[in-house]
Specification:
single chain, 240 residues, Rossmann fold, five-stranded parallel β-sheet, 49% helix, disordered C terminus
Length: 240
């Protein structure tokens, strides 16, 4: 049993009101360093957040695994949970033919898991519209990472071993998919700076510095979240 689950369980069994813990969401353009900065941020906060009830943990690729585990779903469901909007016609036909489960059912399960993680606190949630799913929770700090196409192409080439043409196509497709995902599920523009506490251009700020900037702000921000009465309520209504 991991720390997040254990802390929540122990507090409930002992009748204790668990101290409110902050969490971070990271929205990112492809190749802007979301996963790397998320990992560096978690390490930074592990070392400095003395009030954390559990070690800070990153959820990016392993978020899907968490959804499957929490809802007792087969690993086969993972391939039906991309972080982008698929064609509605394709989705409808495949669902009617029994080729995959209902997209909205999986989206709702993903939302539940993200909310559980956020409410537990001490987590960095990368992608999946985390900032919008958790917007009613006052203890959330939301970040957007951006960069030029040139720099992002270079990062993607190095990370995935692609040539330049492949990297450009990959970035263009994935960025569009993520943008469409938020538009479809939340009717929001992923590039709207008003959705975030902080927007960082990773062309100009290194991954290490970016993690430190975010971490420093989170440590200041979390002081405002120590009283449960300040915390927003979790909505049971799915955003559609």
């Amino acid at each position: 049993m991991d720390c997040l689950v254990r802390c929540a369980r122990d507090a409930a069994q002992n009748g204790e009101e668990r101290p409110v813990q902050a969490f971070v969401t990271i929205s990112r353009q492809v190749g802007a360093g979301g996963i790397t900065i998320g990992e560096k941020l978690a390490l930074y906060l592990k070392e400095r957040d003395k009030a954390a009830t559990c070690p800070w943990t990153v959820f990016d690729r392993n978020l899907v695994e968490r959804v499957l585990e929490e809802h007792r779903l087969s690993e086969e469901f993972a391939k039906f949970m991309p972080e982008k909007k698929v064609s509605e016609i394709q989705d409808m036909i495949e669902e009617m033919c029994g080729l995959h489960p209902d997209e909205w059912a999986l989206a709702y399960k993903t939302k539940e898991t993200i909310l559980h993680l956020a409410y537990s606190g001490n987590v960095v949630i990368v992608g999946r519209g985390g900032n919008l799913l958790t917007r009613r929770l006052a203890q959330g700090f939301h970040v957007r990472l951006v960069g030029s196409m040139k720099k992002r192409v270079t990062h993607v080439q190095e990370y995935y071993g692609m040539n330049e043409r492949e990297a450009v196509e990959f970035i263009t497709e994935e960025d569009k998919g993520r943008k469409d995902y938020l538009r479809y599920h939340f009717d929001k523009d992923i590039d709207d700076p008003m959705l975030y506490h902080l927007v960082i251009n990773t062309d100009l700020i290194s991954y290490d510095d970016g993690a430190q900037i975010i971490g420093g702000q989170v440590l200041k921000f979390r002081v405002k979240c120590i009283f449960p009465s300040d915390v927003g309520h979790v909505s049971n209504v799915p955003d559609r």
